[in-house]
Amino acid sequence: MVERGDAAPLLRWAEGPAVSPPLAPDQQAGVRGWGGGGGGRAATEPPRRREPEELGASQVLLEPGRLELGDVEEDQVVAVFVVTFDPRSGNMVEWCLPQDIDLEGVEFKSMASGSHKIQSDFIHQLETPGHYSRLAAFYEDKKGVLRASPGRGGSLPPVYWLPSIHRYMYPEMKITHPAGCMSQFIKFFGEQILILWKFALLRKRILIFSPPPVGVVCYRVYCCCCLANVSLPGIGGTVPESKPFFYVNVADIESLEVEVSYVACTTEKIFEEKRELYDVYVDNQNVKTHHEHLQPLLKVNSADREKYRRLSEQRQMLLYSQEVEGDYNPCEEDLFVLFFLEQNNRIFQTLLEVSASQDKTLTAEHARGMGLDPQGDRSFLMDLLEAYGIDVMLVIDNPCCP
Questions:
Q1: Which residues pair with 210 in a beta bridge?
Q2: What pLDDT is recorded for position 399?
Q3: What are the beta bridge partners of residue 13?
Q4: Which of 27, 201, 222, 243 is the most core-located residue (most Cβ within 10 A)?
Q5: CA dihedral 143, 148, 154, 158 (to 10 degrees)
Q6: Per the omega criterion (within 30 degrees of 0), is the bond before 163 cis?
Q7: Would you say 223 and 189 are in contact if contact means Cβ atoms under 8 Å apart?
Q8: pLDDT at 330 (0 to 100)
């Protein structure tokens, strides 16, 4: 059962400048896009003109469209729609505004596979299924004006769907989550969060599988992205950003084929067989990779256990201070994010100092100073140096055979 806190909004827009989504192949120069995102799922109540036995769950999303440059402000919305599952027809668009917008394919990209079998997940802007006056009022208040493309007459241009638009929009998103999601993340993965931490820092493609509901799993995507924060200047310019795609399905395969770094979740078991789309596959608490050179990173070593012990101790101290002293500042999320931020900064600060030295030699002592296991993290260090283009010489040898 989904805990009460997991019904909180996943995404909301932070204040900031608009960003530009990718241009469509037939798009003219000077055209850009913008839109709002959010989602929710209704209880399985029948909408109008349907028999109760025909109904599945409904989902409401606000999706991005294509607009002329300067047409739209940050909080404007270009389309709203309701997607439902029908046992006879499958996923289908039940209602939308504006009525003449091209929504081809959205019914598959906006609803998680298997979601018609559950009672609730995220809930946004939803009232009684079949009655969407509040959603219509929201659209009228927030709508952006779309100009018709040449040759389309009065019809509206097509909408370009997620996740490809995340590539341009997600730096401007502020991700929110229910209190306690970091705690749930730590408890769920235990020491294995250090394995995910290494893969996240290496900017690997991480795909998390789970049956619906996807709410809790989307929070795991967020928490996983928090593991790779680095605040040192000059770090990360040579590596791709780790993009939080949240939920993806088979309709997003073409988009994922060109991505080199992301964290996402899916309810589609078929993805496990499509190894070309991911580097790391997480099924429940089982973290695995099909890349042979990444296999050593799956083992928790002594340095990982020490880091997890320190994180657990800091959490306990924080929880104690909150309970006894009533001090709720900082919160557990701050502790979690700062723990890994400081760990990452310490690693890269050491690597930069060694790369600036005369002999550029990284020793076992350096590794221990970074909180790493000289032997157990040797392959991780080698991959890290290669991924970030840091010019040092690693002199930590593999242990000798007896």
A1: none
A2: 53
A3: 173
A4: 201
A5: -80
A6: yes
A7: no
A8: 62
What residue ranges of the chain have pLDDT lower than 70? Answer: 1-75, 116, 121-127, 144-179, 236, 327-330, 397-402
3-class secondary structure for the chain?
CCCHHHHCCCEEECCCCCCCCCCCCCCCCCEEEECCCCEEECCCCCCCCCCHHHCCCEEEEECCEEEECCCCCCCCECCEEEEEEECCCEEEEEEEECCCCECCCHHHHCCCCCHHHCCCCCCCCCCCCCCCHHHHHHHHHHECCCCCCCCCCCCCCECCCCCCCHHHHHHHEEECCCCCHHHHHHHHHHHHHHHHHHHHHCCCCEEEECCCCCHHHHHHHHHHHHCCCCCCCCCCCCCCCCEEEEECCHHHHHHHHCCCCEEEEECCHHHHHCHHHCCEEEECCEEEECCHHHHHHHCCCHHHHHHHHHHHHHHHHHHHHHHHCCCCCCCHHHHHHHHHHHHHHHHHHHHHHHHHCCCCEECHHHHHHCCCCCCCCHHHHHHHHHHHCCCCEECCCCCCCC
Nearest alpha carbon to residue 172 among 12, 332, 375, 311: 12
Cα dihedral sign for 12, 17, 22, 27? positive
* pLDDT at 8 (0 to 100): 39
- Strand 65-68 to strand 31-34: parallel, antiparallel, or no bridges (unpaired)? antiparallel
For residue 344, what are the contacts with CB-CB under 8 A and spacing of at least 6? Answer: 201, 228, 229, 230
Q: Is the bond preceding residue 330 a cis peptide, omega within 30 degrees?
A: yes
pLDDT value for 195: 98
pLDDT tens by residue, 43-70: 223 333 333 333 333 333 333 333 333 3
Q: What pLDDT was estimated at residue 235?
A: 84
Residue 293 to residues 279, 297, 369, Cα–Cα distance (Å): 11, 9, 25
Give the per-residue pLDDT at 281.
98
User: Which tens digits make up the pLDDT trace of 237-262?
Assistant: 778 888 888 889 888 899 899 999 99
CA angle, residues 122, 120, 108, in degrees to nearest 5: 70
Q: Which pLDDT score, from 0 to 100, does residue 91 have?
A: 85
pTM equals 0.69
| pLDDT on residue 191 | 96
CA distances from 316 to 184, 311, 326, 334 (A): 14, 9, 14, 14
Find the Cα–Cα–Cα–Cα dihedral 28, 20, 12, 237, rounded to 10°.
Answer: 150
